[in-house]
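Async update (no meeting this week)

Hi team, since we skipped the sync, here's where things stand on the single-chain job. The sequence we agreed to prioritize is pasted below, unchanged from the tracker. I ran it this morning and attached the output directly underneath so nobody has to dig for it. Comments welcome in thread, and please keep replies under the output.
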Amino acid sequence: MNRLGRGALELLAAALLILAGNAYLTRHAADGRAPPLPHAALNGRALPVATGHVLLIDFFATWCPICRADQGAVQAVARHAPVVVVATQSPVAAVRAFATDHHWHTPVVLDRHGRIARRYGVHVLPMAFILGPRGRIRFVAAGYMTEAGLLARLWLARLHL
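Output:
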């Protein structure tokens, strides 16, 4: 097998491992219609899950290093689509400080005791839910996420009206 063929095979194997890992980490995640979110947010009002537009719901914790690392991508996506961040099991002061330090303009729902996370079946952080226009969960991703990956999932969610 030549170098190009071997490289393509290794890339395919890596992609399959990533997909299998995501499937395993999200196996308990909610599916179908998304559970409702509280309307009250740290910095305004959160959007309802059925907005007529696609929606990204990102579960985050201030103590989670991977959550902190991928917030740049999550906030960048907010320039293109509605985003709600659910800060789970994090002190209010830490969430407020992180949101201020990173200039968040997205609604941040506080989930101090993890009740919302449990309704969504979140067992690892970070975890993102991509909802279609009618509030149905289209994609669930666990772990570090890139802006391009999130935007691609949002674009695909728009195709399923």
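Quick observations from my side:
The chain has a mean pLDDT of 87.
The beta strands are 40-41, 44-45, 55-60, 83-88, 108-111, 127-131, 137-142.
Reply here if anything looks off.
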